[in-house]
Design goal:
Strand content: 25-35%
Oligomer: single chain
Order of helices and strands: HEEEEEEEEE
Distance between the termini: 92 Å
Helix content: 25-40%
Largest sheet: 6 strands, mixed
Number of strands: 9
Number of helices: 1
Radius of gyration: 25 Å
Length: 163
């Protein structure tokens, strides 16, 4: 191969190598920024970001339904996946059921009470023993540490009447 072609080939290979290094460097910087943001979120107790299309809903109940106790409540989810509490996996979480409108701070981990039920094993339904009368139900989807996402992924609040 003539010397000029060898020189051109060497320049092309060097140029491709520099482009690959620039891509690698940009990729590493983006990954480092994402990891730092996630670490900051965790250390500051900030909510994890939810996908824009994420939503939870009741499958078998709607606002105004009249039911008998025990009440089967089935949870629906779109745009995210289910993972048990404590298992950190991007785009996943687990259900929480708010019963009879408890006061909760959606910017913090949800407490476990009789009115704030955790389904941290990944359950997608429950059966409730409810007294006769009106009851409100709302689903809130939380991350591995029981904290609601940002924006909050919650169902509409529904009212059911138990006969």
């Amino acid at each position: 191969m003539p010397r000029s072609l060898t020189l051109i080939a060497a320049l092309v290979v060097t140029g491709l190598s520099l482009v690959a290094q620039a891509d690698w460097k940009a990729d590493m910087q983006a990954k480092a920024k994402a990891a730092a943001a996630q670490t900051a979120q965790e250390q500051l107790g900030l909510a994890l970001t939810a996908p824009a299309d994420a939503r939870v809903y009741f499958i078998n109940l709607k606002n105004g339904d009249t039911v008998k106790s025990p009440v089967l409540v089935q949870f629906g989810l779109k745009g995210m996946g289910i993972a048990p509490a404590g298992m950190k996996a991007e785009g996943t979480g687990h259900h929480h059921l708010l019963l009879n409108d408890p006061q909760v701070n959606l910017g913090q981990s949800l407490p476990a009470t009789e009115q704030v039920m955790h389904f941290g094993k990944g359950q997608t339904e429950t059966t409730l023993e409810l007294k006769p009368g009106k009851h409100t139900l709302q689903l809130v989807f939380g991350d591995y540490k029981h904290q609601p996402f940002n924006p909050t992924v919650s169902s509409e609040k529904i009212t059911i009447t138990v006969k």
